[in-house]
Write a structure and sequence with these properties.
- By secondary structure, the protein is of the alpha+beta class.
- The chain folds into 2 domains: 185 residues, no CATH class; 79 residues, GMP Synthetase, Chain A, domain 3 (2-Layer Sandwich), CATH 3.30.300.
- The protein is 38% helix and 16% strand.
- It contains 13 helices and 13 strands.
- A 5-stranded mixed sheet has the order 9-10-11-12-13.
- Strand 10 and strand 11 form a beta hairpin.
- The longest helix has 18 residues.
- GO terms for molecular function: DNA binding.
- It comes from Actinomadura monticuli.
- Keywords: DNA-binding.
- Pfam families: AlkZ-like.
- This is Winged helix DNA-binding domain-containing protein.
Length: 364
């Protein structure tokens, strides 16, 4: 008989893999590898995401990993920027290409006249000469392909050429207009020519399981996740959720049970945890899910109480006063406010070490 896992049991299992039941004293590259990447649409969120997961994390730890190239920021899952280990990027970049090819469809008529067999080699040659910003890449490609929309040219290069962003000494690792370079040259090895969907699914389950085929597809953007999980079925454990949906998991992965304590935690904007499942009830209730994303598709920062997203948060720094504002979805018990306030104060000290004062507020 298939074991049924409650929403709360799924919550605890996922938090255990996401380093959110207890901060762990592990190196930054190891943590990013265990998470199978971190969403990095903007450069700042991974710093916050690692602070909330790792014992003793310092911003310099992530800077060092970017400089020594053990970590890269590049386009990966769902055609979005992610922080990945260099080895994972090399192993899985080719696996992502069918999804990235499909993402080109959003260009519609803007892709009129574009010949990828000419554009891709031209772009590679430009980026082989020197790292460039995408404003520079678009302008140079427009000179060669004047009849093609410049934004379409840039988007096609992002998706069809394996690129990584060049880190700088900026506070969060990258400037607003970062330079890109060819991944093969940066990592001193080309991405694997082989696809590795099965291995990617095993890594996904290790970081986000137990999960369904639909969950895996939502996280990766790949349409082939169901076939891969079927191939892997003999080596996996199979569960059901409270709605009878089939969930796959690694046999020895942590499933601590719904009674495991879960401390207060603050997740940054775009955190992969809130984007990694089709059914996100293990992290955020369906009634609150519309509050997660803004009209312009920004994914809001959320705070966790008893393991679940209970509201959004942001910070402000003025006149050397750092303030963290919590906006709960529903009124919080005093115990939650107290624990979140203590965690929030620590986060503010990380974010704004020069602040003379810090304050955590709860807004209705």
């Amino acid at each position: 008989m298939v074991e049924t896992l409650s929403v709360r049991a799924l919550n605890r299992a996922t938090l255990a893999r996401q380093l959110l039941l207890a901060r762990e004293p592990i190196p930054v590259p190891e943590a990013v590898g265990r998470l199978c990447g971190m969403q990095a649409q903007e450069p700042k969120p991974p710093f916050l995401g690692l602070w909330t997961r790792l014992d003793g994390f310092q911003a310099s730890d992530l800077h060092a990993a970017l400089r020594d190239r053990s970590l890269v920021r590049a386009t990966m899952m769902r055609a979005t920027l992610h922080l990945m280990t260099g080895s994972d990027y090399a192993a899985f970049r080719t696996t992502m290409q069918p999804m990235l090819d499909g993402a080109l469809r959003v260009l519609g008529d803007r892709a009129k006249g574009m010949d990828l067999e000419k554009v891709v080699p031209a772009a590679r040659a430009l980026l082989d000469e020197a790292p460039r910003t995408f404003n520079e890449v678009r302008a140079l490609l427009q000179e060669r392909f004047p009849d093609v929309n410049d934004r379409a040219l840039g988007y096609a290069v992002r998706l069809c050429v394996p690129l990584v962003m060049v880190p700088t000494e900026d506070r969060w690792g990258f400037p607003r207009a970062a330079r890109f370079t060819l991944a093969g040259g940066w990592l001193q090895r080309e991405p694997s020519a082989e696809t590795a969907v099965d291995e990617l699914m095993l890594r996904y389950l290790a970081a986000y399981g137990p999960a369904s085929a639909a969950d895996a597809q939502t996280w990766s953007g790949l349409p082939s996740t169901g076939d891969a999980l079927e191939r892997l079925r003999p080596s996996l454990r199979v569960f059901a959720d409270d709605k009878g949906r089939e969930l796959f998991d690694l046999p020895d992965a942590p499933r601590p049970g719904e009674g495991a304590p879960a401390p207060a935690r603050f997740l940054p904007e775009f955190d992969s945890l809130v984007l990694a499942h089709a059914d996100r009830r293990r992290i955020i209730a369906d009634d609150h899910r519309p509050s997660l994303t803004t009209k312009n598709l920004r994914v809001r920062a959320v705070f966790l109480w008893d393991g679940f997203a209970c509201g959004t948060w942001d910070t402000e720094y003025k006149r050397r006063v750092a303030t963290l504002r919590m906006r709960p979805f529903e009124p919080l018990p005093q115990a939650a406010v107290d624990e979140l306030a203590a965690e929030g104060e620590a986060l503010l000290r990380f974010l704004e070490p020069e602040a003379k004062e810090t304050a955590v507020t709860v807004e209705s």
